[in-house]
Every structure is written in C-alpha cells, then in structure tokens.
Specification:
269 residues; alpha/beta; Glutaconate Coenzyme A-transferase; ten-stranded mixed beta sheet; three-stranded mixed beta sheet; 15 strands; 19% strand; globular
C-alpha cells in the first residue's frame, strides 16, 4: 500500500470518513448551506460514500435530499435543481415525513453531521449562539439533526477544529450526544447511541467508553498535540497512546481527483 505524499486536507477527511463505512449499510447525508459548510455536511460525505464503494464497501449507499440510493457512479457535473432531479436513484421521496419515519425506525446505520458548536459530551448546536431568546446569531435550526443523534447507530461529525466550535458546553442542545456524560443519555430516555466519531481538519476523536467524554484518537500527519489543545475550549480525554491518522493512499487520491470529484463540486472549500 503506497500512501500519498501530495493530498489536500479535504482528501484526508474523505479517506478517513470512508474507512468508517461498512458494506451493506445505509447512510444519511444532511444538507449544507454554502462554502465550507456545504463541503463538510454534503461534499465530503458524498465523496466518502463513493470512495467506500470503490474500495471496500461496494454495497454502501446513501440517502441525500430527496434521493434514496443515488447512483454515485454518475455524480452530476453540477448540483443544480435540474441535475439533482434527473440524477438516477432508487427512489425520489419528496415527503419529509418519509425521511423522519425512516430515522425513527432506525433504518440508517450511519449519518453525517456538522455543527457550529459541539461540546465535551458530543451535544451539537445548530440553533442559536448565545442566549436562546436573544441570541448573538440565529443559526439554520434543527432540521432532522435531532433525529440523527437520537436514532442513528453511528453518527459521524465532520467539522473544523476551532475554539469557538469545540466548547465546554453548547449554548443550545439541538441534538443530544451523551448529554452530561456517563449514563445520562439513557436516564433521559434516549436509546443507546450518540456520536461515533468526530473527524476534524487536525485530528480524529471518539468518546470514552465509561465517562462518554470526547477522547482524542489520532493526530493528522504534521499536527501536534499542542496544535489540537490550543484549538479547543476544553481539554479532551487523552489515551495512553495517541495514534496518527492514516493518510490517503495514492490510489484513493487518484480516485477522488479523477473519478469522484473531477469537476470540484464536492470539495469546493
């Protein structure tokens, strides 16, 4: 296996996310606004899904927008309304209730999420920054993200590592991760679950099996522990051994650049 020496941060995130996907699973991809938010919430997940199909999980598929199992061999050259509505898929479901029903029935194995705030116990905030009734900023709102973290077996959070994003406590809990840690999620009446991985531009995190605190798993090549700690507003749990994130292979980079996203519509920012 030959690892690539020339790869972008986005290509590293695509390869890292793809390794978490398993054959035969169904993944939920949410929506993004524009720029970096779109790349994190939509572009990287779609590219990771296709990379997984082409490498180790040929029967992995996704639900994105109104499209159930779109043909990822034929990703459109542009994601305009015309190209999306004519994108070959197993089905187009226009009723939002259908998606929520599938979520509540736990029909998704994995989902991809991003957020302006995430805290020590994996709670996400995409509702408001500051005091809820008089916020500094009103955000996009919950959409279906509340259901993702409530019902999906392995939510994967994709976001950049920043102090204002990784906070001690989110200003508003849009989506319950591990609530206050330990067994507080279960005591609140939610099913077992919670965030599986948090994949960032500097490191990968999981969650401690007992305390449910966010725990550093690996540093990306060239990133130091100090770089990570300086980019967070809380100190994550640190294992005895911190690994290095596996870089993408030469073949993975080739696939991303030449076959998955040659028109640069997924990894745009």
């Amino acid at each position: 296996m030959a690892y690539a020496e020339d790869y972008s941060p986005n290509e590293l995130l695509v390869a890292t996310a793809a390794r978490e996907l398993r054959d035969g699973e169904l993944g939920f991809v949410g929506v993004g606004t524009a720029g970096r938010a779109f790349t994190l919430a939509v572009g990287i997940p779609i590219a990771a899904a296709r990379l997984a199909q082409m490498t180790h999980a040929p029967n992995f598929t996704i639900y994105w927008g109104n499209l159930l199992s779109p043909d990822l061999q034929r990703i459109p050259p542009k994601l305009t309304q015309h190209h999306i509505t004519t994108w070959p898929a197993a089905a187009q479901l226009s009723n939002t209730g259908d998606k929520c029903d599938m979520l509540a029935r736990r029909q998704f194995d994995v989902c991809f999420d991003s957020a302006p705030q995430i805290d020590r116990f994996g709670n996400l905030n995409i509702t408001a920054i500051g005091e809820y009734r008089r916020p500094k900023a009103r955000l996009i709102g919950c959409l279906a993200q509340t259901d993702h973290l409530a019902f999906v077996s392995r939510p994967i959070v994709l976001t950049d590592l920043r102090k204002r994003t990784f906070v001690e406590r989110v200003d508003f809990i849009t989506s319950v991760g591990y609530l206050d840690g330990k067994d507080s999620r279960i005591k609140a009446g939610l099913a077992p679950g919670g965030p599986w991985k948090v994949i960032t531009d500097k490191a990968v995190f999981g969650f401690h099996a007992e305390t449910k605190e966010m725990q550093l798993e690996s540093l990306h090549p060239g990133v130091t522990l100090e770089d990570v700690l300086e980019s967070m507003s809380f100190r994550p749990a640190l294992p005895q051994h911190i690994g290095q994130t596996e870089p993408p292979t030469q073949e993975q980079v080739r696939l991303i650049r030449q076959e998955i996203d040659p028109n640069r519509i997924l990894l745009v920012a």
